[in-house]
Every structure is written in structure tokens, then in C-alpha cells.
Specification:
A 5-stranded parallel beta sheet has the order 2-1-3-4-5, sandwiched between helices. The chain has 2 domains: 131 residues, 3-Layer(aba) Sandwich (Rossmann fold), CATH 3.40.50; 182 residues, Hypothetical protein af1432, CATH 1.10.3210. It has 350 residues and is of the alpha/beta class. It starts with a strand and ends in a 6-residue tail after the last helix. The radius of gyration is 33 Å and the shape is elongated.
């Protein structure tokens, strides 16, 4: 174990040497300075465990030195014991107010100085141990929460695989949705309109959450999901329920996991990714910026991915043709600002 270092700050040599001898007798290492500026420089380069600080010093008094120590994140927890030849209640009050831990008067009584030093070193060490334990506990809690989040995400992805198989989508389809949502979100992040809405964390989250959009398909009959002919009105109503079913699946998780960005964004995407810019979509008929941005992004990306993939009733369109078709719905089904960005980055899409 390293011997604690105690910094003595006093402009009077006799006082410094007296404290030096007391500190050595107590079994600790003294570090002597004769001014506040010297003390601040020592603290910048040396690990100090306790400061014994004189109040009445030229240029920078002890109160100012204390304030600077307490303003520094790296040194603010170090205990400070003030010393003064004057047993002035006002000095004592001011010393405690600026962050001092104790106060001793001159001339020094060795046993009293040793006792005060021992008390504050033990308190300082205990405080550091508690902070270390708290830090480890926080890391443990964060790791447990991360594991729980991953487990819930894995459950959602397992349900998603069932929904994907029911709809005859392959893994590549879901990966394309993820990657293209990320590319679009990253580009939107660079625009003036969306820079304040899209953070790096938002981009990472939408990449993970986007494939969950059709998780409600687990409740849709396979014959409807895989039907190649036009759906009947009743079949369309059944199909549209997948947004509400998916939202209910996520609601149960969200109620237990408040503040989980992944679950909250997934919930927005699942419920609103079939809403239209002009209000003609489902399930709620909201319009414009009422539609969560994440759902707007997934809406246009899933439409693009569907157009550029083979279907039983048609071949895949080229990127250029798919984007051209989407353009016909800009301002109707899709946010025109998102479409403009999608058009600009069409060569980057997969």
C-alpha cells in the first residue's frame, strides 16, 4: 500500500518544518510548499491525500487556494485542513464555506495534529472506497440492463423471424431494410432540418429497430401474407391489424422498460410505418410531422426495398426506376423532404 502524501502549504519556514516532522512521526510522507501557486502546481503532478493549508499567505491566501482545489474535478475530493495563528470564528466559518474539512491553530500540538490527520485520511480513504464500490455497482447494473435489453431484443427478433417466414421474406430483405435506414438516417443527420433530431445513437437505434416493423405479421394468416392476387377488403382489414398487434407486443415490454430507446423507437415504427404523409394511411390516419420520424424513414425505405426485390407477380425494379416510382408518392404517402434525400443517395442504397 502506498504511503499517503500530505501537502503542507505555508509561507513560514518554521511552520513547514514543524508540520514536516509531525507528519513523518505519524508515518506519512510530507510534501512542502511555501505558496498557493506552488501548491496548485504540485497537485497537478502529484497524488496528494491531504492538504494542510495556511490561511494568511501573500499573493494567494488559503481560501483562494482551497477554492481552486475544489473547482478541479481531479482534486476536489482531497480533504483540506486549515491552519492559522488566529483562532478567529469568522476564519473558521469562511474556511468551511469554501470547502475546508477541519481547522487547527498555531502553535501546533503534535498529538492534536496527528489525530486530525489520521481522522481525515481514514475518511478520505473510506470515501474513495465507497466511490469505487459505487462505480463497480453502476457498471454491474449497466451490464445487467444491457443483458436484459439484449435478451428482450433477441425475443423480438425470434418473433420477427416467424413473421418473416410467414410473409416469405428472406434474411437479406431485413438486412437491406436495416442498412438502408441507417444510410438514410446518417444523411438526414447532415441536413439543417434534421441535424437536431438525429444523433449518432438515433442512427444506431434505427438500424436495430427497423426490421421489427412487421413483427405483427405473426398474427396474420399465412395465406393472406403470401397471397399474390389483390386482397379483398376483409383481407386488407386483417392485414392492417399487424400494426396494432405488433404495437401490443411491444407495449408490454415498454411498460417494464421505461427509457429504453430501442423499445420506444421500435414501438413507434411498428405502429406508424404505414401512415401516409397526407393522412390517408393506417392505423390512425395521422399526417405530416405527427408521424414519428423513425416511422417515416422506415416507411419509405421498406417501400424502396420492396420495389427492388423480385416478387412472384413481377421482377425487381432497378434502383433508378424504384426511386422514380416512389417520387410519384412524395407528398402523398411519403415525406417529400425524406424523398429528396433518398433520391440524392440512391446510389448508396443496397
Amino acid at each position: 500500500m502506498t504511503t499517503p502524501k500530505i501537502l503542507v502549504v505555508d509561507d513560514v519556514e518554521a511552520n513547514r518544518f514543524a508540520l514536516r516532522d509531525i507528519i513523518r512521526q505519524a508515518g506519512y510522507t510530507p510534501v512542502l510548499t511555501e505558496s498557493g501557486m506552488q501548491a496548485i502546481k504540485v497537485l497537478e503532478r502529484t497524488q496528494i491525500d491531504l492538504v494542510i493549508l495556511d490561511i494568511a499567505m501573500p499573493e494567494m491566501d488559503g481560501f483562494e487556494v482551497c477554492r481552486q482545489i475544489k473547482e478541479n474535478v481531479r482534486t476536489r475530493e482531497i480533504p483540506i485542513i486549515f491552519t492559522s495563528a488566529l483562532d478567529n470564528p469568522q476564519d473558521i466559518k469562511q474556511g468551511f464555506a469554501c470547502g475546508g474539512a477541519d481547522y487547527i491553530t498555531k502553535p501546533f500540538v503534535p498529538d492534536i495534529v496527528k489525530a486530525r490527520i489520521n481522522i481525515h485520511l481514514k475518511l478520505y480513504e473510506t470515501t474513495r472506497q465507497l466511490q469505487d464500490m459505487n462505480h463497480k455497482l453502476q457498471l454491474s447494473v449497466i451490464e445487467q440492463l444491457r443483458r436484459v435489453e439484449n435478451e428482450k431484443r433477441n425475443v423480438l427478433y425470434a418473433l420477427l423471424r416467424v413473421a418473416r417466414e410467414n410473409a416469405a421474406y428472406d434474411v437479406a430483405h431485413m438486412e437491406r431494410i436495416s442498412k438502408n435506414c441507417r444510410v438514410l438516417a446518417e444523411t438526414l443527420q447532415l441536413t439543417k432540418e434534421y441535424a437536431d433530431l438525429i444523433s449518432d445513437a438515433y442512427v444506431d437505434t434505427i438500424e436495430l429497430a427497423a426490421p421489427v416493423c412487421d413483427i405483427g405479421n405473426v398474427a396474420v394468416p399465412t395465406e393472406i401474407l403470401q397471397k399474390t392476387d389483390r386482397l379483398t377488403p376483409e383481407e386488407s382489414r386483417i392485414m392492417q391489424r399487424h400494426t396494432e398487434v405488433g404495437e401490443r407486443i411491444l407495449q408490454g415490454i415498454d411498460d417494464e422498460e421505461q427509457g429504453n430507446d430501442f423499445i420506444q423507437m421500435s414501438r413507434d415504427i411498428v405502429k406508424y410505418h404505414h401512415e401516409s404523409w397526407d393522412g390517408s394511411g393506417y392505423p390512425t390516419g395521422i399526417a405530416g410531422e405527427e408521424i414519428p420520424l423513425s416511422a417515416q424513414i422506415v416507411n419509405i425505405v421498406t417501400a424502396y426495398c420492396a420495389l427492388t426485390e423480385d416478387r412472384s407477380y413481377r421482377s425487381a425494379f432497378s434502383k433508378e426506376k424504384a426511386v422514380e416510382i416512389l417520387g410519384e408518392e412524395a407528398g402523398v404517402k411519403f415525406n417529400p423532404a425524406l424523398y429528396d434525400v433518398l433520391y440524392m443517395i440512391k446510389r448508396q442504397l443496397v
